[in-house]
Amino acid sequence: MSESDSNLYMIGENVNNNEVPQQLIIEKVNMDAIDGFCREIYYCDPYTAMHAEHVADLMAGLATQMSMSAEEINLAYVVGVVHDVGKIKTPEAILTKPARLTDEEYKIMKRHSIDGAEMLSAIAGTEPIVPVMRHHHERYDGKGYPDGLIGKEIPLLSRMLAICDSFDAMTTHRCYKSPMTLPESLIEIKKCAGSQFDPEICQAFFEFIRERFGFELDTET
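Above: the chain sequence. Below: its structure as tokens.
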């Protein structure tokens, strides 16, 4: 575990809620402005809004599983809600296309992480959120975007978000693909541990899913 993660990533430790700062990060953020972005993305693409709700729930659950503080769990939830707001700037024809994107369209879609970070940077109190937004499509092996960060260079919440985002995308029906089953999606995440995803956080995610859904993945094979 890197030193930069030590205050956040505390799997297996008990958190004393009395030590949580009185003013939570979520209280410092202009939530009215964020709510405005969320409403706008809902009108642009209801799927993206539904996906954000699912990811926020998964992020809060994973943060709880990792024994994060109340402040960090709140922040994880907010990050889940807003992680795709940059898609407001994505052309509607691409955002709602009822088929797989072409390479050129995908290149345009990938701008949303940068656009979202820039949009959030204009809102008071979002300083902890902006880098998470920018880097939630980085890969643990350094092959992600937009900056090709590797391993623990990627913000912790971005590494968590990569797993929660992918899990919901895999298990959700789209007109151009059938959803994966729960076992199939977890097997895929396991396959990508160490390449796309942080392997330590993958293990925490498997434990969270076991407690949430009662399904246990055999992580030894």
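Residues 25-164 form a domain with the Hypothetical protein af1432 fold (CATH 1.10.3210.10).
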